[in-house]
Specification:
Layout: H1 7-23, H2 31-47, H3 56-69
Length: about 70
């Protein structure tokens, strides 16, 4: 799967995730950060079918296990 970001969105997201990695606290510090996250969520909603599946919880658990164990 590929998710497209504008260069501005990528920069805002990079800074947000860098601050989160440094502090281990996830705080949205600027409305632009919230907008980038909303845009990312909207893009994922358009591309993913799993969140609408009746067995979403088990699909999510399995995906988490694969990512964690990778």
């Amino acid at each position: 799967m590929q998710i497209d970001l504008t260069s501005d969105e990528a920069l805002v997201l990079f800074d947000l995730l860098s601050r989160w990695d440094d502090s281990e606290r996830f705080e949205v510090g600027d409305p632009a950060e919230r907008r980038v996250l909303w845009n990312l969520l909207a893009d994922l909603e358009r591309r993913l079918a799993e969140p609408f599946a009746p067995d979403y919880a088990s699909l999510l658990d399995a995906a988490r296990a694969r990512v964690r164990d990778a």
